[in-house]
Amino acid sequence: MKLMILAGPPSAGKTSVVKNMMRRLHPKVKISFLKIDVVITFEKEEIGKDFPDIPVKIVYSGDLCPDHAGVMVIRDGIEWAEKNKSELLIIESAGLCLRCSPYLNQGLGIVVLSMLGGMNSPLKMGPMVGLADIAVVTKIDLISQAEREVFRQKVHEVNNSIRLYEVNALQGTGIDRLLVELKDMKDIRADSLVLKGVPPLGVCTICIGKKDIGWQNHFGVIRKLDTQGADYLYRGE
Amino acid sequence: MNIKKLTVFSGIDKSGNPEKFKKFEIFPGNTVAIVGPTGSGKTSLVTDIEMLAQKDTVTRRKILINNKIPPFSYRQDPSKNPIVLITQHTNFLADLRVDEFLKLHALSRKMKSRGAVSKTLMLTNKLTGEKVTENMKMTVLSGGQTRALMIADSIVIGNAPIVLLDEIENAGIFKKEAMEMVREEGKIILFVTHDPVVALLCDIRLVMKNGGIAKILRTSEREKKARKKIIEQDIMISVIRERVRRGEIIKF
Ligand SMILES: Nc1nc2c(ncn2[C@@H]2O[C@H](COP(=O)(O)OP(=O)(O)OP(=O)(O)O)[C@@H](O)[C@H]2O)c(=O)[nH]1
Ligand SMILES: Nc1ncnc2c1ncn2[C@@H]1O[C@H](COP(=O)(O)OP(=O)(O)OP(=O)(O)O)[C@@H](O)[C@H]1O
Ligand SMILES: [Mg+2]
Ligand SMILES: [Mg+2]
Ligand SMILES: [Zn+2]
Q1: Tens digits of per-residue pLDDT, A109-135?
Q2: Of A41, A231, B46, B140, which one has the greatest count of Cβ atoms within 10 A?
Q3: B75 touches chain A (CB under 8 A)
């Protein structure tokens, strides 16, 4: 089975890109689709409407960072897709924290970006762009050619080796070229899958739900507004 | 990159009917007007060319350069891209200063940016009434300023052998100056236009209908004679337009 993990900011066009891929691949390629989000998603309806026989599973992360939730459930997700006898598992991650990246050492990591998010959005997104294999830039119908080229430049500043595809995900323009990538993809080996990037540390009393504000009220890795010397410091109980 | 020929292989119109020609060839030095009612597919045609469509757009058209499928690197690397497209947009979304934007664009097209910014601004300000300066934000530019900057940018930084212009007359920039600026010996230029003067100044006219190319016309000798008169009248109108814009009272 092959694996694609798509991440990107809300409304970047992730589901639209996925649906365009499905339109070209289904039913020749058997696909399963897994969406990881925080509280609410529409993918079950969005995909179910057009592709009622593609298995779709939704995972809500609730109070957990959605990328962390993704890491927890991804093994189960792969087993589920294998049980469906799928040849391709597509995972769409809400990827809200922008410090983690959901990509694995195998399969394709795809960041979906829309230029409507601003020229500097690739710089703000850290490892989600930095560790991706592919960037898909959507909504090119809404911007000028010059802006597209400048945006490309910005993405390459963050990740020089990323392969960038520009698409109009409303009409499906550019998707065929993206799908050429699928041909060179290898099957995953589930027993040796690991995260590509090191997730950020989340070890303090905020992580476990203490609501007080100010570092004075917390233990673990804490931070002051003006810290002399080291930027990060640890406070034990 | 030496462009000898651009070929458009026909596709389908909005009703799914094939276009009534097999292929259409454009050579360096040709200027082509694309005309037709709103929504008839003019923008889609220039977008097909810019995307180097290979039957992978709604129109199913196919584009060849020098009889070959253009390499994907043309689209992956702006510095190799032989095509500049001035889109129909009348506003920029890029949250950058004009000079930052132009420098980055020059970098992406691997153009030495020294002088590129000032030259682009100089040309921009020939096309627009209110001056654009390098420290303005792209997003505050007016419709006309935006289009003037797009055109100047395409000439100085884009500097490509194939130029696609989606409605040069849009937003009240100085159309005649813009056309003169863009027209350059040996280039392939396509003008999407609603303006009869722009259309008649071209050698070839593509008439769009229902998403397809319905007619391919060559500007006849008779039309060339007529166009002199039309241009004279157009100049008169544009003089009056400028005077009205400057707040003068018009008397005949
Ligand atoms: N004009 C235009 N609109 C697009 C394009 N791609 C997506 N959209 C629109 O953008 C909106 C969001 O698209 P989605 O595909 O739902 O985005 P998403 O990233 O899956 O969003 P979430 O899952 O909610 O984070 C929809 O209204 C799409 O129709 C595009 O290329 N051009
Ligand atoms: N051959 C085609 N098949 C299907 N849809 C098409 C085709 N050609 C154009 N369209 C669609 O028709 C709509 C209008 O087309 P387009 O924007 O190219 O028109 P236009 O002539 O540029 O209009 P305007 O003068 O308003 O700018 C678009 O949504 C486009 O995708
Ligand atoms: Mg979605
Ligand atoms: Mg148009
Ligand atoms: Zn996180």
Answers
A1: 999 999 888 888 888 888 889 999 999
A2: B46
A3: yes
